[in-house]
Description:
Layout: H1 3-30, H2 33-72, E1 84-85, E2 88-89, H3 95-120, H4 123-127, H5 142-151, H6 153-175
Antiparallel strand pairs: 1-2
Amino acid sequence: MNADQLTQRKRQYQQEVSSLTNALKSQTNTYNVSGKLQQIGTLQQQIQSLEKQNETAKGDVETAEARDELLRSRETNANAHTLYIADRPVRRALVPYLWVLSVLFVGVGVLCFYWMAPLLLPSAAASGFPYANGMGAGTGGVLDAVTEFMMSRTTWMTLFGAALVVILFLSLKIAGVFGK
């Protein structure tokens, strides 16, 4: 190889390098970085929403499979403590909410009786306040005795204590402290 050939190859190499450099510069000018970042952000939001939908669908599938197994087979391995509402199995996570609702409804029923019982008594119109004579001294019969019993502070304290004990033991049971 002589010097002319080497200089010719050097020129060809420099031309190739300059053409590659110009091509890279033109592509970086036309590439929209902020647009691509926005597309990536929207894709990530879509992925997160799809993951939430997937979790919800998994729970629904588990419920559907349990119900399908129960309905299709005569011999199921469900225990006696499985809870069904409207012929659908209840998820374990909903049990505490059901207990709270039941305690709430029982309390509302007792409170309604507490408020309405004086209106139902026959002695309420005659004496104005049927509880002035003390416990069991009313003249209205069984309903009067029940109402006086419900107006007693001892009764309310006992009901409140019983509700607290039930809530405590159910919370411990759900937390897995005792029993399986």
